[in-house]
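Q: Hi! First time doing this. I have a protein sequence and I read that you can turn it into a structure. Is that right? Here it is:
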Amino acid sequence: MASSNASSNRRDFLRLAGLGGVVFASGCAGTAGRGAVDDFYFVQLSDTHWGFEGAPNPDARGTLPKAIAAVNALAEGGGGGPDFVVFTGDLTHTTDDPAERRRRLREFRELATMLKVPTVHFMPGEHDAALDRGEAYREFFGPTSYAFDHRGVHFIVLDNVSDPGASVGDAQRAWLADDLKRRPVDAPIVVFTHRPLFDLAPAWDWATRDGAQVVELLMPHPNVTVFYGHIHQAHHAMTGHIAHHSAKSLIFPLPAPGSQPRRTPLAWDPALPYRGLGFRQVEREGGSPPVPGREPWQVTELPVVKA
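A: Yes, that's right. Below is the predicted 3D structure, encoded as structure tokens:
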């Protein structure tokens, strides 16, 4: 278990390095005395869109390496590095050319090996998987949905992008239901998806067609948090007791849900390059919840490049 001193050292490092960002405490109901839950942190990166070229990011081939360097700086700083990194989809930018799709996936995979962390988890976005139902993605990264356990927390990766209709689908929902039945009802659970599981902005494809059915399966469990990507901005919402947190993109930001008629990228500002881009540190202090009966995730938004 990481000590509270390690957590304090890590926060001091972020502050001194000028990387401190917005901290959001996600209150997940849970059992304060569940001794199997250790404190640790992971890093979420999302929507790298490797292969994109265009005015919204004139440094499209440089932003991901810069983000990798920023994550590696966490590992080299006080308090130690993340236990793992997770990319929540749209690793690459869409292309109709199957050979080009594979080239981009291959280049992305090679770049990801530069991360100085013990483990990296991947999942697809619609840009990676919708045109071939995940065939090329699986060649490079394996299954599009899976589960794993880490330090007393159960993590579930759901695929709501390989189906071009933006559904999780009957088979995957059945797999999820079976997986959940194998867990104690109050087990700490984190779900990773690409699209939001709730109807954030359906007209912009910011929804999952059968997301309500997925949320219904999760509702009996009091300690669930969902982290997702897709909308290229940090956004926090609740469905009942379940917190949903979207991540910033590493390629270009998008407007707030429904704030304008079209879902067009926000313009690059040469005076403030990389504005609106970033990644996040997600920390769990399982040994000492600040509120009895609650074990929140501390979500800290970090920039790609120090301002």
